[in-house]
Amino acid sequence: MAVIYPVVLCGGSGTRLWPRSRKDAPKPFLPLVDEDTLFEATLRRCADPQRFGPSVVVTGVGHRTHVEAQAASFPGTRVIVEPMARNTAAAIALAAHRVPADAVMLVCPSDHHIADTEAFRDAAVTAAKLADEGWLVAFGITATSPETGYGYIRRGTPLAGGFEVERFVEKPDLQTAMSFLADGSYSWNGGIFAFRAGTFLEELARHRPELAKAVSEAVAGGHEDGALFHPDAGAFATIEPESVDYAVMENTARAAVVPVSMGWSDIGNWHALRDARVGDAEGNRTRGDVELVDCRNVLAETDGPRISVIGLEDVAIVVDGNEVLVTTMAGAQKVGKLAGAANQ
Amino acid sequence: MAVIYPVVLCGGSGTRLWPRSRKDAPKPFLPLVDEDTLFEATLRRCADPQRFGPSVVVTGVGHRTHVEAQAASFPGTRVIVEPMARNTAAAIALAAHRVPADAVMLVCPSDHHIADTEAFRDAAVTAAKLADEGWLVAFGITATSPETGYGYIRRGTPLAGGFEVERFVEKPDLQTAMSFLADGSYSWNGGIFAFRAGTFLEELARHRPELAKAVSEAVAGGHEDGALFHPDAGAFATIEPESVDYAVMENTARAAVVPVSMGWSDIGNWHALRDARVGDAEGNRTRGDVELVDCRNVLAETDGPRISVIGLEDVAIVVDGNEVLVTTMAGAQKVGKLAGAANQ
After folding, report:
1. Backbone dihedral region of B184: left (phi > 0), alpha (psi from -120 to 50 degrees) or beta?
2. Among candidate residues B231, B246, B242, the one with its CA nearest the CA of residue B84
3. Residues of chain B positioned with their CB less than 8 A from the CB of A326
4. DSSP H helical ranges for chain B
5. Average pLDDT of A253-275?
6. Which of A21, A152, B51, B338 has the smallest count of CB within 10 Å of its CB?
7. Where are the domains of chain A?
8. B254: exposed, middle or buried (C-beta count within 10 Å: 0-12, 13-18, 19+)?
9. Which of B293, B308, B327 to mutate to probe the A interface, most A CBs <10 Å?
């Protein structure tokens, strides 16, 4: 079967893991769950020459130095440096131009956590087989709670190892999310996709001809610099930013979904990060100089000062530089709106 | 009536307000409740020439520089420097030797908070009148909760402005404390006493003759140095440390109690300190660079780094130097046992 080309999307930064994640130390490049950064873990997950070719990273000028530093341990990695952010449809299209047209691309966000690498790799192979038959395949992550922060995918007619997509659903309200969970035929859309490069570009040209044309021009006018590729900024700037979901996946007649249960988390906030880390017998997760007394399910981490905690449960305490964050797990989604996070 | 000599006992430090209170920055000398330190507030409370003479402070060598610095704004204050700590019976006896025998001493701890100064002063005058008649008077602080950390005083036969003491009670268990509260004839023993110096020394000599003799010798062998008095260390070292409650108040036949409701707190831990401070509409108390979101009854204070808090209730968060403390109000009594507090 065709070689799978991992395409790692490495843009954005997010503010909900502030104060650890900051403008100049963005989420993908931090060792949040274990010793690897999320970006390194994404590359390592695909570093299996039996199944994967070298990765193509699509990133922005702001992240370039982080990417180059952390990708150095993964020989053969190529990097496309976007002159400005134009969302995922354009980013994936850039990568599609830089691999063989009949190659299968496996598009992966760079800031998610996947606990079960083998399940991921098996699903990648299954998805690649469907992609090789002309399908545009989304990973359908087993929904384990009624999340309102994710898109959902409803399964339709069965295929080998997967299903046709019946429909993509926007972030639902809680009641809808609960009905999806009860229904059992919905998965989370984790933004992981597999398709042939040529198939993707054909579908993009069909549904977003202007976007497809602008990307082609940006690639044609671009230049290589060692492992880096720089698209033409003038052409790229004209692109209307759109997600791959809106531009292609929701419009194509050939969308498929491969269900997968692989311990996935988008590490979207301190609550999710707490859950992704392995806890001690009391469910506590600590890093750095921390003393906990009568605590349960507390995440406490510090880059210097000692943290001493008594009697707390389900709270995150983060000390980073000149910032101290204390939040309940329920409040974790509001971290991005704190003055410290918003005014970086 | 006789002039009242305030005798301010300024020893010990305590660890339960760590990390703000530290070995080298002890509790009495910190501006914990308002802009005055607890020690300054104690002196200011008695700085009323209509009712009080200049204060006599009894302190230890370790606290001397703090005392001298903060007492400088209160002219006439004299300081007795104990060569080593020998508990309150000896400390009060030292002061009793340094005022006229017929003067009334008003013994005050230096690390408590009293919200209602007028109520304190009125009670002091009432107590002084009874002291002038030969009573050894304890302030009986109106009990407002079933505290297990305080001693209690049971009222007996009424006197003018007070009562004979029926008995002193050690720190009770919770059930006993609740019965005291329901009974209504028990007050908290806050360690504030009034008696004539001569009466006190007579009672001390009656019940603890060796202690009384050693103090007399320490005073006879001592020396003055400006506003300071240094007892003889050799004589003072021989003293068996004992509290004034054990040595005198529980033994004398002439113990009286003056009930008083004056917004008293021993500021014994972060819970008590939270309650002593004035809160905002949500009951929060902050100092320094603090942002609170969805918080209630939170105390948050920092000497530098910003604290950002989401969703917490009844929690204290204290940042001081290289230490970050986070404790529930219920857990506040365990602060002294934290490694940071215990191993200073």
Report:
1. left
2. B231
3. 307-310, 312, 315, 317, 326
4. 38-45, 64-71, 87-97, 117-132, 174-183, 197-207, 209-220, 233-237, 244, 270-276, 339-342
5. 97
6. B51
7. 4-265, 277-342
8. middle
9. B308
Q: Could you identify the residue written with the tokens 């992966």?
A: A108
CB within 8 Å of B341: residues ≥ 6 apart: A308, B15, B16, B18, B19, B335
Q: Are B107 and B199 in contact (CB under 8 A)?
A: no
Which chain A residues contact residue B305 at CB under 8 A? 319, 321-324
Asked whether residue A1 carries a pLDDT value surpassing 70, the answer given is no
Residue spans of chain B under pLDDT 70:
1
Report residue A24's pLDDT band, with 50, 70 and 90 as the boundaries: confident
Residues of chain B found within 8 Å of residue A310, distances taken between Cβ atoms: 326-328, 331-332, 334-335, 338
Superfamily of domain B4-265: Spore Coat Polysaccharide Biosynthesis Protein SpsA; Chain A (3.90.550.10)
Quick check: A206 pLDDT over 90?
yes
Which pLDDT score is estimated for B12?
74
Report the C-alpha gap between B30 and B334 in whole angstroms: 21
ipTM of this complex prediction, to 2 decimal places: 0.91
Q: What are phi and psi of A266, to 5 degrees?
A: -85, 0
Burial of A333 (0-12, 13-18, 19+ CB in 10 A): middle
Beta strands A290-293 and A151-159, pairing class: unpaired
Q: What's the pLDDT at B1?
A: 62
Test B327 with A310 for CB contact under 8 angstroms. yes
Higher pLDDT, B2 or A313: A313
Cα–chain center distance at A75: 22
Per the prediction, chain A carries an average pLDDT of 96
d(CA A140, CA A192): 9
